[in-house]
Amino acid sequence: MKGKLYVVATPIGNLQDITLRALETLKNVDYIACEDTRVAKKLLNHFGITGKTLIPYHDHNEETQSEKLLEILKEKDVALISDAGTPTISDPGYRLVRKASERGIQVIPIPGVSAAIAALSASGLPTDKFMFIGFLPKTEGKKEKELENIKKVGITTILYESPNRILKTLQTIEKVMPNADVVVAKELTKLHEEFIRGKPKDVKEFFEKNKDKLKGEFVIIVKPNDNEEVSEESLEKEIKKLKEQGLSTKEISKVLAQKYGLS
Questions:
Q1: Which residue, among 205, 208, 144, has the nearest Cα to 175 in the 3D structure?
Q2: Which of 127, 186, 187, 251 is the most buried (most CB within 10 A)?
Q3: How far apart are the first and last CA of the chain?
Q4: What is the CA 108 to chain-centroid distance, rounded?
């Protein structure tokens, strides 16, 4: 008899957010695949769950540990958890899920907290259509390109960001979509949970003035607006940059018209 792979969502801050079904699953399985065994032990100890074999499963060992877990799944049930939230969402796990399903192993989701959905639900931005991007690229050029794509699609988009990159990312959002609506959710479900709303410039300036709030984890929600306006200053900078690249006036006009929807 084959085991089952349970994809179990865990709290992102407030431990009371764990579901009864998640607790029951963690109590019943023999093996738990987790990002960090120390984090997993704290969670299990809090709820009095003992006697489980914890198997480290993260970005750096995903390939080798997947095979080990698949061997276990031939006979035993395994729960997959991340340090916080729903596994596989900007976290390791999808390769294991894919391989398990390909081998006829039943994969069962145990739903619960997701930082992306929690932030979106309280953002006040349109939710009838949305995209989840996760973390933007680290290099500025690739980040701008990704944001340009988000702008073109035009629907509410959910991003994750770290404390050391949040200001730079907000600055790039301001550059690409100065008229977008932005909501930044920080420390979700924790004591210092906070939502900061406004245009990219407003939200960026809030964090510049409140550097003490650049802690914890961030969810950025962006809603591009159809009436995005580009300032003369931004156009002048773009023109200068394109001239330095050797483009002619006609070529520059074509590039900027396409980028900003101008005549």
A1: 144
A2: 186
A3: 66
A4: 22
Residue 235: strand, helix, or coil: helix
Q: Locate 83 and state its tokens.
A: 């340090």
Element (H, E) at 132: strand 130-135
Alpha carbon distance 258, 237 (integer Å) = 16
**pLDDT reported for residue 32:** 98
Tally of residues, the chain: 263
- Are 76 and 53 in contact, with CB atoms under 8 Å apart? no
Residue partners of 187: CB distance under 8 A and separation at least 6: 13, 193, 194, 215, 216, 217
Beta bridge partners of 198: 182
Classify burial at 226, counting beta carbons within 10 Å of its beta carbon; exposed 0-12, middle 13-18, buried 19 or more. Answer: exposed
8 Å CB contact between 61 and 67: no
| Confidence at 3, pLDDT banded by 50, 70, 90 | very high
- Specify the amino acid at residue 204: K
pTM of the model: 0.82
Q: Is the dihedral of CA 250, 256, 261, 263 positive or negative?
A: negative
Question: Could you tell me the two tokens for 259?
Answer: 């980028």
The region that residue 104 occupies, defined by phi over 0 for left and psi between -120 and 50 for alpha, beta otherwise, is left
Decide if 176 contacts 147 (C-beta within 8 A).
yes
Map residue 222 onto helix, strand or coil: strand
Residues 60-106: tens digit of each pLDDT: 898 899 999 999 999 999 999 999 999 999 988 999 999 999 999 99
Cα(173)–Cα(194) distance, rounded to whole angstroms? 20
